[in-house]
């Protein structure tokens, strides 16, 4: 459960240390600006940016019922963040599986990518697509 939070915690701690050093040198304005930057980086790399993840088996079951794609992702992945931000509100219409929280999801990604945990891997109608264009994914959503 802690693995997805390692990078955001490191960003926050690093930013705090840098800010403390700048405050000690008498530069509070720069300290605040850098701390905000590090907190922003922590937020962007946290699981909070993504819709609530489901387990791989549950996502596959739901996808079979409603036809919506399943997205396998992990926190800290820039390509996953790119997909998430470019989809905007449409991201909530997908089933998101965090492979760091769900071993079955990680296994599904490895099976689709020759043993590699390459994300984002989007499964549409049972066919995996590794790091697809966000506009293509949007086009796969049913009206």
UniProtKB/TrEMBL annotation:
Residues 70-127 form the Glutaredoxin domain. The chain crosses the membrane at residues 31-50. GO terms for molecular function: electron transfer activity. Keywords: Membrane, Transmembrane, Transmembrane helix. This is Glutaredoxin domain-containing protein. It comes from the Bacteria. It comes from Streptomyces nitrosporeus. GO terms for biological process: cell redox homeostasis.
